Q: What sequence folds into this?
């Protein structure tokens, strides 16, 4: 029993360090993303040109997250982990090469088709743009520039899956930084010579795909897992990969599909609605990316390899720690964004073409999105419990139900509440998604909450509520929308630092976490591929 406990603790430490690695690089990427969005808000504002670019940017990213990252990673990583553990690196390398050749062939064909039918695709993706021919034409033109990004970034997703399975998380986590650097560079360097700043951004997206691809090719070679190009060949393993990807395209990407539906319907609300939702979502993407995506990225290969072993209790322990870390970091972030939605948007974006009315609309949407943030992170944490067991069918059923619920709620709420109704529908549906994932895992016996998790979750809730009350009081007392920019930044910085201090101190005193325990975990060396 003592040996088993030590083994579980060892793997939990490895998981925490892996999450910390991914979170660190993701934080850098998100901060650069904020710089990028601040520049976009100042140069494009939240009008028709901004709407057109955001649709063009979301178009390839939707397919990337559904096809390249979500579905592919969910199906590919467990199969690759099984090959590494049971058949050796040479067999795994051959499987990865065949998967790469098929992925490039399929995504290349998809890019070619979409480029041809882009005007018709735009009627589906942003039907409201059809009422403004100039805006519609711009969205089509920009989307044709950005869409080849899909082919390159899908290959990046495969190579990221390889590196994550080998427990080499840094390069894959750092790749998104390249995208933000390219977009910032495009705004500053290309905008003066292109037709509009939106054209410069679109070319920045295309360039970023090539740069990320080259970066990951080099990283895989340095990891001793160079993927050699070969002619596409379908064998039993590739067939199995394809079979498991089909349900994963919805199961792993239900959140992205909900965002697609939001974009489609937001284009019908009013000019600027797409941009309001985009900017609000970008702010909540900071904690979602740094926490949720980081935990999911580290947890899937960890569970996949642990379940190939002889002690399933190790995987159960890792799943519990993933949930605990997610709630410990996400609940206070959600409360803070809910309380300070409008002031946060005011500080980040209100300048240049982005005025007070845009701040109000975006800030209210952020407050509503914040309600669904913990659920979005829990989906990222719970979904690997299915994918690691090579079950991609169950999440599709849950995903379909959540999407239908989202559409129904939007239809009910949008006529009265506009873009805020869309945000509320999205937050509600993602909570239903998370609840059903957790319920089915528990029902199957694949998730049992341990005593430590049951003890700490109520304390995390109390601590988050206490921090929220302090922030509410501080904003009510000191915040002024018409104060100088420097004053508003200083007040926001003081609120953020004060909120963190209150949360950290109360979490330690109430037993929501143990900083000595976390410090010891992060200090004990680096994870290895054998763990």
A:
């Amino acid at each position: 029993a003592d040996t088993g406990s030590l083994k579980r603790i060892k793997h939990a430490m490895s998981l925490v360090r892996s999450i910390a690695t991914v979170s660190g690089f993701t934080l850098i990427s998100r901060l650069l993303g904020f710089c990028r969005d601040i520049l976009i808000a100042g140069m494009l504002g939240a009008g028709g040109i901004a709407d057109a670019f955001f649709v063009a940017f979301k178009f390839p990213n939707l397919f990337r997250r559904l096809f390249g990252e979500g579905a592919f990673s969910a199906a590919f990583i467990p199969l690759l982990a099984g090959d590494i553990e049971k058949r050796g690196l040479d067999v795994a390398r051959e499987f990865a090469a065949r998967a790469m050749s098929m992925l490039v062939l399929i995504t290349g064909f998809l890019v070619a088709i979409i480029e041809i039918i882009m005007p018709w695709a735009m009627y589906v993706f942003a039907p409201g743009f059809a009422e403004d021919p100039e805006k519609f034409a711009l969205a089509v033109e920009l989307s044709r520039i950005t869409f080849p990004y899909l082919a390159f970034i899908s290959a990046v997703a495969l190579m990221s899956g390889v590196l994550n399975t080998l427990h080499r998380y840094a390069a894959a986590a750092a790749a998104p930084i390249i995208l933000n650097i390219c977009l910032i560079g495009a705004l500053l360097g290309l905008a003066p010579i292109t037709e509009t700043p939106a054209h410069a951004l679109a070319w920045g997206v295309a360039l970023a795909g090539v740069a990320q691809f080259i970066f990951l090719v080099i990283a895989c070679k340095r990891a001793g897992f160079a993927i050699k190009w070969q002619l596409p060949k379908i064998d039993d393993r590739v067939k199995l990969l394809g079979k498991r990807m089909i349900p994963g395209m919805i199961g792993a990407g239900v959140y992205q599909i909900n965002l697609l539906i939001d974009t489609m319907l937001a284009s019908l609300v009013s000019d600027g609605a797409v941009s309001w939702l985009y900017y609000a979502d970008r702010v909540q993407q900071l904690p979602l990316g740094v926490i949720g995506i980081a935990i999911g990225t580290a947890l899937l290969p960890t569970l996949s390899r642990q379940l190939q072993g002889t002690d399933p209790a190790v995987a159960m322990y890792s799943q519990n720690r993933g949930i605990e870390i997610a709630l410990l970091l996400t609940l206070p972030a959600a409360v803070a964004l809910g309380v300070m939605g409008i002031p946060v948007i005011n500080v980040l974006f209100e300048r240049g073409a982005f005025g007070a009315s845009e701040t109000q609309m975006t800030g209210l949407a952020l407050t509503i999105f914040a309600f669904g943030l913990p659920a979005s992170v829990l989906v990222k944490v719970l979904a690997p419990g299915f994918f690691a067991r090579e079950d991609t069918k169950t999440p599709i059923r849950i995903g379909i139900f959540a999407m239908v619920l989202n559409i129904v709620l939007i239809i009910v709420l949008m006529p009265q509440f506009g873009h805020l109704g869309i945000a509320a529908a999205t937050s509600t549906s993602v909570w239903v998604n998370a609840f059903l994932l957790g319920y089915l895992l528990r029902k199957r016996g694949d998730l049992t909450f341990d005593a430590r998790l049951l003890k700490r979750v109520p304390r995390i809730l109390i601590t988050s509520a206490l921090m929220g009350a302090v922030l509410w009081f501080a904003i009510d007392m000191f915040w002024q929308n018409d104060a100088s920019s420097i004053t508003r930044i200083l007040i926001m910085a003081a609120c953020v630092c004060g909120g963190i201090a209150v949360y950290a101190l109360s979490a330690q005193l109430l037993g929501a976490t143990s900083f000595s325990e976390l410090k010891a975990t992060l200090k004990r060396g680096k994870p290895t591929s054998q763990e």
